[in-house]
Structures are given as C-alpha cells and as structure tokens.
Amino acid sequence: MSPTGYGPDFLLDLYRQMVLIRHFEERVKYLFLEGVMPGTIHQCNGQEACAVGVCAALEPADVITSTHRPHGHALAKGITVVEAMGELFGRTTGCCKGKGGSMHLGDLAKGMVPAIAIVGGGIPVATGIALAFKMKKEKRVAVCFMGDGATNEGAFHEGVNMGAIWTLPVVYVVENNLYGASTPVSWVVRTKTISERSRLYGIPGVTIDGNDVLAVYVAAKKAVRRARTGKGPTLLELMTYRITGHSRRDPALYQPEEEKKRALENEPIGRFAKYLLDRQLADQRRLDQIAEEVDQEIEAAVEMALAAPQPKPEDTLQDLFVA
Amino acid sequence: MTMKRLSIAEALRECIRGEMRRDERVFCIGEDIAVRGGWGGAFTVTLGLEKEFSDRMINTPISENGFFGVALGAAMMGLRPIADVQYADFALLAMDQIVNQIAKMRYMSGGKLTVPVTMRAPVGVTGRGAQHSQSLEPFLLPAPGIKIVCPATAYDAVGLLRSAVRCDDPVMMFEHKLLYGSKGARAESGAIDASSEIPEEDYVVPIGRAVVRREGADVTVIATLLMMHRSLQAAALLEQEGIDVEVIDPRSLVPFDWDTVKASVVKTGRVVIVEESPKRNGVGAEIAATLAEEMIDHLTAPIKRVAAPNTPAPFAPPMEEYYVPSVERIAEAVRQVTSY
Q1: Which of A229, B106, B160, B218 could crosslink B244 through cysteines, CB 3.0-4.6 Å?
Q2: Domain topology for B211-338
Q3: Contact residues, chain B to chain A, C-beta under 8 Å
Q4: Which residues have a Cβ under 8 Å from the Cβ of A32 and sit 6 or more positions away?
C-alpha cells in the first residue's frame, strides 16, 4: 500500500464498496444454497479491489463491459444493490427486468452494458464503445473487464489490436485470478505476464497487485487519463485470486490448500482494513459499522426482491425488437 | 419525377451516401471498404465514399468477429454503423458477435438498449468454390433479434437499406453477387440485370413486406434474390405451357410477410419454394412447415422445395450448374405440383 494523501472519506468509500461486494456475494451464495435464488452464479470474492479500484478512477459517463462474473463490476459502477439483487432473483425490478440474470447484469444509464458472458466477447464491444466516443469527440472512456482466460480468445487479439491501431479511449483490464475456470493460467500462457502481450499491439501494459485497491486505483487512473487525453489504450493486468469456486457449487479442489491459505492472507479487504487501521484513518468500530450498514442495505434489497413481482410468463415475448 | 437507372451496387452506394449525408451518426465499417485505389469492398458498393466521408469509413483489419463487435459497441453509444463482410461465408467468423451479442443485447437488457446495426453480406454460388458461396439465411433464422432482408432489385436494395439504417434494431441484408451489376475488374460472369429506375425522392421499402412479382392463379412460387429472378424466368416458360405462376418475393425473411403468402396460397393451393442453400433445414423448410401447420385446408398438392443438395458448393462449372437450382428445375417442380 504505497500511495498516501487520500482523504479518509474517499478511502472509507473504497473500503465500503469492497465490503459491499464481498457481503453481497456471500449473501447471494447463501440464498442459492438455500434454494431461494434461481439460476447459477459466478462470484468475485477476493477480486473486489479490481472492480472497486478501477471504477473509482472512472466518471459516471464512462462505460464498462463485464463478464460472466459481473456482480462486483456492477456494484462498483453504480448499479444499486436493489437493482442487482432484483435481477438475480429474476424480478421485474431487476436492472434488466429479469431478462438478463446474474451473467448479464448491467444498465447503460449507470455506464455498464449488460455483462457479456461469452469469454472475450466484450473486448470488441468495448473497443466499439470507445470508437463511438472518439468519433463523437466525447471525452469518455470505455473499460473492458476480462479474465485471464479471455486473453487466449481470438476476440482479444482482434479487439485490442483495433483499439491500438485507432488510438481509442479504452482500458483493457485483465483480472488474472490464476485460473480459467479450473485450468491454471500457467498451462495456457507461455509468457511470464499477460501484460507483456501489450507490446505486440504497440500499447503499454503493466502488471500490478490487484489485491491492493490503491495500487489498482493509481494504475487505473493513469490508464484512464491516458485514454481520455487521446493517447490510446492500456493493458492493465491485475494479479488477484478467486477465494471461492468458479461457479455456485464448485469447491475449487484444483486450488492447492497452501495457495488458498496464502490467498486468504492476501485478500484485499483484510489488507485494506489493516492499512486504514495502521494509519489511524479508521478504528475497528468504524469498520464494523460499515459492515453493519452494508448488511442492512443487502438485507433490505433481498426483502424487496422477494416481495417484487415476478415477470409474467408472456413477458418472454417482449423486448426483442424496438418495432 | 427524376429517375436514374442504377445497378444494385450503384444504388447501394448512392443510398449509403445519402444516409451518411442525412445523418452524421451513420458510418461504414468493414474490410477494404475505404482504400483509395482499392475496390470499395469486394463488389464496389462503397467505392469512392471515403473521398466524401473520410472520418466515417472505418477500414478494418481482417477481423470479422472484432469489427462486428465494434459495430455493436458503437451502436449502443448512439451511432448507426453499417458493417459489411466481403462474402457472407466470412460472417461465420463473427457468429459470436452477430448471434450472441448483437442479436441478444437488447433482449438481455430488458428492452433498455437499442442496437441499430445494419449488416451486409454477399451470398450466392459464383465460381468460387465452397468457401465463398454460402447463403447464411438458414443460419440466422433461428437467431431471434436480427431482422433479415434480401433485395432482388436495385429499387428494393435502396428502400430496404434505408429502412435498415433508420431502424433501431439489427438488420442483416443479404445481397447476391450475380445481382450487384458490379463493373470493371469486379464484374461477375453470369450476372443478371437487377437494375432499377431509382426515384430521386426519399422512399423506403418497409421491412417485413413481400411483393408479388408476377400474378398467377395456378401455383405460388416463393423465392428471394437470384432464385426470384430464375423463378420469373420459369414462370415465363410455363406460361407457354398454360401454367399460370404467381411469384412472390418475400424481400424480408424476418419478419416474414405471412399475409401475402397465405393470401396467395388461398388462391392457388399449390406452393413451390426455391432457395440456393442446401435443402436441409433451409428457409424453405421453415416456410413449408408453417404453411403445412396453418394452411393445410387450402393446399391441393404437397409443398415442393427446390434447393441445393446437402453438400458444400462445388467448383467445376458442370457441378456448380447442377448444384444451383436452374430455371428448368424450378419449372419442373411447378409442373409436378400442378399435375398432382
């Protein structure tokens, strides 16, 4: 945790957002296991600093694309807990009126297109969003969240290359959690880092500690500034770890125990709490209070979602075409 | 009213020029579409447009999946891209973006987003072997979220493209290589004249409306693109045999003008569907199945499909001639349903 000089309100808000995402994921998992919530889920426990640090560097008008693991990105970009929870429950109050579900959370009004759950699929789309910003001479930035696995898709090559050749205002953010589903990244990537692939496209790439929310914020800020000032894309590789399964019932037996143990010591919320406490930017009571407030917000959202109307079956037939 | 006789390639070019002048949100994106000294796409449609619209002719790398995704992203931000591939076969490389993203994005958003992407793809078996020949209509029919249009004349090409560009939904326009009327080095052998008198005024052809190309009382023949022209030729031939053929050009496959087709079936009771794709699971299968479900009381003969065999397109001219439904094969199918 190197950078200093940020106000306590800003820092505590980062902390609050990370706790919100973690508790949201934990509550959602519980609701699934209880059998209350339909569908499937891909959770981002342990990766909260990536979403929060990057989105803290964005303006509300900036637009992100996300993946099959979008809950953290959605909450960090400003989709409310009520809208997200409603969507996970498939209710009409959800951000996609129940048509999207966990894997397609999003709302353009908040600067997030529905999450794209085909690995790599969002990379060309974010590039196109950035192309529109450039063509319309708007000072907005597109951010493309992806996992390490997406960087082996053809869409990565095609999308990043176009972002580079046209000097577009886009930041490609790779959350490297060391596994593509169950396959270790070391089996499928020969280079030491993923960020060094940026050289092939003639854009800067950097690998940083993705569990250090301030380091993520600083790197994202730099990349976003570069994009916004017309200098083109950056490939940001954030080293992190998923401290839960790939999807709802995955016990992640492929993650070695020793590695998991280290990851738990390195997870971003505990680290940031220590940072805040060590510097006396907050006391434990304040942090506990944040957790409590967040839990109340989540519980209220669960109750609202459960009380919200189910879509009518024939609503299936709506929303395909404008006319 | 002033008219200009234009080929499909010329008419599309003027139409795109007009749409780009009318609306600065419209832009073109594709391969080799904007290179001075180049061809204006594979069939000259965008030739020279880069001189007038240097910032809105986005010449891409050879990255079909990539630039269809770029078109989607730009469309969600309020622009109106026209994305084209050189051959429809290449759109198979972009099926994730076309089918998973472009087609589904509005629906997944709960109707909050609009995706005004126009896509263009040349189809047709034209002496190029198996990978530059395929008609993709049957691939996209089961992808709800994309409107599909198939202009057989320059008049329709202009009217449908205007509708597509002005429409807030994704539209795929399939164009036929033998109907373009491309000139010079890009001229096609075996081309058919599909040119039209194009009025000066700003007309549109609504998406989802068929046209009866030839009225007749005995048999309804349904066909698009090149097959529509061959069906008209077959109808002229059959007229001499005393068979009165009605030829319907659906022009749009999604949405489909069932009213026009059903009205014709009520009149004739006999149906032949012609298509250039393999017969299996083709457009004809969908039309035939629906008519069998909903119009059985009006049918006086089994529905007949004339289509390509269930093989890739061959190269050698005698095989290619065998592969693509000919005027004589269409005529023979009509004779069969007439004599049933």
Answers
A1: B218
A2: Rossmann fold (3.40.50)
A3: 27, 55-56, 58, 60-61, 63, 65-79, 96-97, 100-101, 105-114, 144-145, 147, 167-169
A4: A41, A248
**A318 assigned to some structural domain:** no
Q: Which of residues 145-174 of A touch B (CB under 8 A)?
A: 154-155, 157-159, 161-162, 165
A29 within some domain: yes
Per-residue pLDDT tens digits for A15-41: 999 999 999 999 999 999 999 999 999
Q: Cis peptide before B255, with omega less than 30 degrees from 0?
A: yes
**Nearest residue to A24 via CA among A307, A269, A279, A233:** A269
Asked whether residue A2 is domain-assigned, the answer is no
Q: What are the distances in angstroms from CA A239 to CA A23, A46, A48, A171, A210?
A: 22, 11, 12, 16, 5
CA-wise closest residue to A147 among A101, A110, A116: A116
**Contact predicate B143/B98, CB 8 Å:** yes
Return d(Cα B3, Cα B201) in angstroms, integer. 9
Contact A177, A241 (CB under 8 A): yes
Spatial contact of B273 and B256, defined as CB atoms under 8 Å apart: no
pLDDT of residue A113 exceeding 70, the answer is: yes
Full domain range(s) for residue A240: 8-305
- Whichever domain contains A172, its CATH number is 3.40.50.970
Q: How far is it between the farthest Cα atoms of chain A?
A: 59
Residues of chain B with CATH 3.40.50.920: 211-338
Helix (H, G, I), strand (E, B) or coil at A55: helix
What's the rounded Cα separation, in Å, for the pair B276 and B324? 6
What are B282-329's pLDDT values in tens digits? 999 999 999 999 999 999 999 999 999 999 999 999 999 999 999 999
Chain A partners within 8 Å of B74 (Cβ): 128-129, 131-132, 135
Q: Three-class SS of residue B186?
A: helix
In a domain, A181, yes or no: yes
Number of other residues whose CB lies within 10 A of the CB of residue B276? 27
Q: How far are the Cα atoms of B46, B48, B63, B180 from residue B38, in angstroms, in the given order?
A: 10, 9, 18, 18
> Which residues are within 8 A (CB) of B129 and not within 5 positions of it... i.e. 6 or more apart?
B313, B314, B315
Q: Among B8, B39, B5, which residue's Cα sits nearest to residue B160?
A: B8
Considering only residues 86 to 145 of chain A, which have any Cβ-Cβ distance to chain B shorter than 8 Å?
A: 94-100, 104, 106-109, 113-114, 116, 118, 121, 123-133, 135-136, 142
Mean pLDDT of A133-153: 98
Are the Cβ atoms of A109 and B108 closer than 8 angstroms? no
The total of structural domains in chain A comes to 1
- Check CB contact under 8 Å for A158 and B75: no
Split at pLDDT 50, 70, 90, the class of A2 is very low
Distance CA B266, CA B288 (A): 15
**CATH 3.40.50.970 domain residues, chain B:** 3-199
CATH for the stretch B3-199: 3.40.50.970
Of A96, A132, A159, the CB nearest to B74: A132
C-alpha B234/C-alpha A158 separation (Å) is 46
* Token representation of residue B246: 């009605």
What is d(CA A245, CA A225) in angstroms, rounded to the nearest whole number? 35
Nearest CB neighbour to A320, from listed B76, B97, B107: B107
Which residues, 6 or more positions from A316, have their beta carbon under 8 angstroms from its beta carbon? none
